[in-house]
Amino acid sequence: MNGNDEIDRIQRRLAALREEVAKRIVGQSDVVEQLLVCLLCDGNALIESNPGLGKTTLVRTIAEATDLSFSRVQNTPDLMPADITGTEIIRESGGDREFVFERGPVFANLVLADEINRATPKTQAALLEAMQEKQVTTAGETRELPRPFFVLATQNPIDQEGTYPLPEAQTDRFLLKILVEYPSRDEEREIVDRYTTGAPDPSVDRVLSRDGLKRAQRLVRGMPIADDVRDGVIDLVRETRMDEDVEFGASPRASMGLVLAAKARAFLEGRSHVSWEDVEAMAHPVLRHRLIVDFRAEREGETPDDVVSDLL
After folding, report:
1. Strand pairing partners for 151?
2. Which of 87, 119, 196, 217 is 20 to 30 A from 236 in CA distance terms?
3. How far is residue 40's CA from residue 55's CA, in Å, rounded to a whole number?
4. Cβ-contact 282, 37 below 8 angstroms
5. 169: Cβ–Cβ under 8 A, 6 or more apart, which residues?
6. In angstroms, rounded to a whole number, what is the distance separating the alpha carbons of residues 111 and 282?
7. Which among 180, 176, 220 is positioned nearest to 29, based on CA atoms?
8. What confidence score (pLDDT) does residue 159 get?
9. Parallel, antiparallel, or unpaired: how do β-strands 176-179 and 45-48 relate?
């Protein structure tokens, strides 16, 4: 099989993956696209939405359709780092005692960290270290996490009582911040009809293997990008540092993330080149959590998304 045949095969598998997700998730095409971009970029996502919009179902469905092991962490203020990474326990066998490492839920390919802003900063830091290093260190021993490894963390924007907001330096570790909006009236009617009849949840076929996903990640990174598109991304990110409405702009990590996300979107669309349309589509989720709007602009109702739109 030559290179082009392999690219076509994997792109068809990704199209099939979207179809499998659509069996359970009504609408939310942009959200699904952005999550798949995260997987292709080997990145992590921060998902923000109100309760009851299907975030857990969406992530679990993607895990099932891609042969990825899945775990879910419900963050609470009393959650300790060891509850996530694992801890050593004493095990007795034949009168002998030995220390055995009991792996925590972070040892999965796809980790859903629900309401990450309810965990204490110490626990947040343990999870974010795993995201950055793809490993955890406990009892002086470093243990590699399974590959591929993704953290999809959720937070509720309306319930801030008893929460610990992520510092800006830590939110920068997330490749994308994805906003999940309410469905349209027709979509909500379909959701109600689909899930109130007593019928079992639609089954999902496994259409992309772990090895296939790893290969897709390598192909995305190797995709060419025109110099003018790349330079446009750099200029866009640099403009965020000079905009009068922005107190702190995006770092070069944002430039790298936006180029990579644009490549992944082009690959998802079945193309072999990156267009400026891909950059425009991924600019908001890549940049919105990396900008801090100054007090004056914030008082006037300006949001990071507004700033990105103006710069585009």
Report:
1. 111
2. 217
3. 19
4. yes
5. none
6. 23
7. 180
8. 61
9. parallel
Is the pLDDT higher at 298 or at 308?
308
Does the pLDDT value for residue 1 go beyond 60? no
Q: Is the pLDDT of residue 295 over 90?
A: no
Torsion of CA 48, 50, 52, 53, to 10 degrees: -50
d(CA 250, CA 168): 11
Task: State how far the Cα of 247 lies from the Cα of 255, in Å rounded to an integer.
Answer: 18
Q: Residues near 145 by Cβ (< 8 Å), separated by ≥ 6?
A: 106, 107, 130, 134, 135, 136
Q: Where are the beta strands (DSSP E) in 115-244?
A: 135-138, 141-144, 150-155, 176-179
Q: Quote the CA–CA distance of 44 and 110 in Å, as a whole number.
A: 10
Q: Which residue, chain included where needed, has tokens 């509720």?
A: 156
DSSP state string for 231-246: HHHHHHHHHHTT-TTE
Residue 239 Cα to chain centre, angstroms: 25
Are 53 and 191 in contact by the 8 Å Cβ rule? The answer is no
Q: Can you tell me the mean pLDDT for 241-254? A: 84
Cα torsion at 190, 156, 260, 264 (round to 10°)? Answer: -10
